[in-house]
Amino acid sequence: MTKELRCGEIMEGCPTVIRGETEEEVLKKGAQHARETHGIDSLDDDTIRKVKSKIRES
Ligand SMILES: [Zn+2]
């Protein structure tokens, strides 16, 4: 069982799918992806909540 986050559900048009073993791992990779690809240095609480709500089991 892995967790999956489709970045495109948050950042329109982004094809990246982030996967991890745990929610924490997905969040960590997601933050890294946001920094490297979208130029977002830090995620605020609202964004983190939004991201968490989009993480699914796959
Ligand atoms: Zn993205």
Overall form: globular
Share of residues in strands: 15-25%
The hetero molecules present are: zinc ion
Number of strands: 3
**How can the largest sheet be summarized?**
3 strands, antiparallel
Low-confidence stretches: none
Oligomer: single chain
* Radius of gyration, CA atoms, in whole angstroms: 10 Å
Q: Structural class of the helix and strand makeup? A: alpha+beta
Which bin fits the share of residues in helices?
A: 40-55%
Q: Look at the structure and give the mean pLDDT.
A: 95
| Total tally of structural domains | 1
Order of helices and strands: EEHHE
Helical stretch tally: 2
Biggest β-sheet: strands ordered side by side in the sheet: 2-1-3
Distance from first to last alpha carbon: 6 Å
List the helices and strands and how they pair.
Layout: E1 3-6, E2 17-20, H1 23-38, H2 45-54, E3 56-57
The structure holds zinc ion (ZN).
